[in-house]
Write a structure and sequence with these properties.
539 residues; 3 domains; Yope Regulator, Chain: A; 3-stranded mixed β-sheet; single chain; 6-stranded antiparallel β-sheet; alpha+beta
């Protein structure tokens, strides 16, 4: 195990530390959150999630869904708890044990990310998902195969493991390296890996905020891990240094709002941003603030001590950032920024609970999307930091592939409910009945100068379908017309393979739609039989 040596997530030049120390030494104690302002910003974000939630859900991705749960709680969507939508990502082992793929496009992006964000939202392990009888506890105990061996990826998993520990029977977990070699880790070994990753791992996974959160939660909630507490306190103290960086950035921003010609403040602001590699994007400021205040808040819930200056620094950050967001959030592309905004909403509502309640309620922040007041808030142009050039926003050029969307629309108008396309991505749409494993599906796919009508097998355990798909190719070549190529691609998706039929972009929409209909007609019953035989359906 690593020795208890100094650790810091930030490396700054001496000039930057001078600015930060000035900030630290001038923080007022006994500050309070501007509740009226906070409520205005929360209301704006709630109106935005209400406007965009359909589109986010249509992305058909668990990472998007779990970030909504993190930011806005287990809210009611179309009459049901948001967690009910997790049912669409559940797979079943041969013994019918339900689980979610880990580190996989068809499941969690980070190990146990959905469970971690649900724990942050106060979702109990006993929650019944979509009245299936499947609970979070069932999924946690089934989702023990983790398709990564990187220690920096352990943060979400440790946080969820700690918060749902009484409901988890599993005491060892299988991790796979890039070559597919499995390695078993028990709980203490997971902690060793997480501590080690703080010192040697890169910062590509959420700047190690969640890694620290996970270590803190495990030490606080799981018996027998007391020896890791000095590391936990070190990591917490070091992460909270970022609060003072963020407040320094915001104070310099306020100076520029008051005096746009203040060149010294502009230079200092640029230097801090460059050293922190956080750029001038307002989304980055929100991302950092949300994550680090979230770390602090959950650490306090778990009984860790936080310096009074750090706590008041967080309050000043929230008050200042809320004033900026109230007047600048309209500049942001919400569908691109809702992940960070969700963390910030969770963080500031948790901070309010810590101030106002002896027993903070993790569910108190759940958004109610009915009867929201529209966000026609007066905008003070002086505080529109984007329009004034102090911050910028992330701009995404979204080209609409009109031909592809026409194909999808025409197909859906003719398909039954169980065979509608899933998702809202601009370059592919999956098709499969809800009881099939998500990794087995038909797909419309945009290709370079072509459009694909395909069948994908995106997990190794679906290899039993390969022989059937290969042998059906001669039949398909006689039944489907006007294609460019129709074959089996053995290299697709790490050698798992796909059956593909490609059409030129000039091919009529009717021909491509008919090809998908024919492909489904000729193959779906045999695929259904094979899946049932191998106990791979939910039915």
């Amino acid at each position: 195990m690593s020795q208890i040596t100094p650790w810091s997530p930030i490396q700054l030049k001496e000039e930057c530390w001078k600015i930060i120390n000035q900030t630290k030494n001038s923080i007022e104690l006994s500050q309070g959150i501007d509740t009226a302002l906070a409520n205005q910003v929360i209301n704006i974000s709630d109106c935005l999630i209400a406007e965009n939630l359909d589109s986010i859900v249509e992305r058909d991705g668990l990472p998007h869904l779990c970030h909504v749960i993190n930011g806005w709680g287990n809210l009611t969507y179309q009459g049901n708890p948001l967690t009910d939508l997790i049912s669409g990502f559940v797979h079943f082992k041969k013994n019918k044990q339900p689980y979610i793929y880990q580190c996989d496009p068809e499941g969690d992006f980070h190990p146990w990310q959905t469970f971690a964000y649900s724990a942050m939202a106060g979702v109990p392990a006993t929650v019944d998902i979509a009245q299936t009888g499947i609970t979070f506890a069932d999924l946690l105990n089934g989702s023990t195969q983790i398709m990564t061996n990187k220690g920096v990826e352990l943060g979400h998993m440790l946080f969820a493991l700690a918060n749902y520990y009484p409901h988890i029977n599993a005491r060892s977990f299988t991790f796979y390296d890039p070559n597919g070699t499995p390695q078993e880790f028990d709980i203490e070994q997971l902690m060793v890996q997480a501590v080690h990753a703080h010192y040697v791992g890169d910062y590509t996974v959420c700047r190690k905020f969640h890694l620290t959160e996970g270590v803190l939660a495990m030490v606080a909630k799981v018996p027998g891990l007391e020896k890791f507490k000095p590391y936990a306190q070190l990591f917490l103290t070091s992460q909270l240094e970022i609060l003072h960086v963020l407040l320094s950035v915001l104070r310099l921003t306020v100076k520029l709002v008051d005096n746009p010609e203040d060149t010294e403040s502009k230079q200092q602001l640029d230097q801090l941003r460059n050293d922190m590699v956080m750029s001038d994007l307002i989304e980055n400021q929100v991302y950092y603030a949300g994550h680090v205040i979230e770390v602090m808040g959950f650490a306090m819930l778990d009984g860790f001590e936080v310096d009074e200056k750090d706590f008041n620094c967080a309050i000043e950050i929230v008050n200042t950032l809320n004033k900026i967001l109230k007047n600048s959030l309209h500049q942001v592309d919400f569908q691109e920024a809702f992940l960070g905004l969700g963390h910030y909403r969770r963080a500031q509502t948790l901070l309010s609970e810590l101030i106002n309640s002896e027993k903070p309620d993790l569910t108190a922040y759940i958004a109610t999307l009915d009867n929201l007041q529209t966000h026609t808030t007066y905008i003070d142009s002086t505080w529109d930091v984007v329009a004034n050039g102090i911050f910028s926003v992330h701009k995404v050029q979204k080209e609409r592939p009109e031909k592809f969307l026409d194909i999808v629309e025409k197909y859906n108008t003719q398909a039954s409910e169980n065979w509608q396309t899933r998702g809202s991505f601009m370059h592919f749409r999956r098709i499969a009945p809800s009881h099939w494993p998500r990794a087995c599906h038909y797909e419309f796919l945009t290709l370079p100068s072509a459009i694909g009508v395909e069948i994908h097998l995106e997990r190794d355990e679906l290899a039993f379908i390969k022989p059937y798909l290969k042998q059906t190719i001669p039949l398909l070549r006689t039944e489907i017309q006007n294609y460019q190529a129709l074959d089996w691609d053995e290299e697709w998706n790490k050698g798992r393979g796909r059956l593909f039929i490609s059409f030129s972009e000039q091919t009529s929409t009717d021909i491509i739609v008919a090809a998908m209909q024919k492909l489904i007609e000729l193959t779906q019953q045999n695929i259904e039989t094979l899946l049932t035989k191998h106990c791979m359906t939910a039915a």
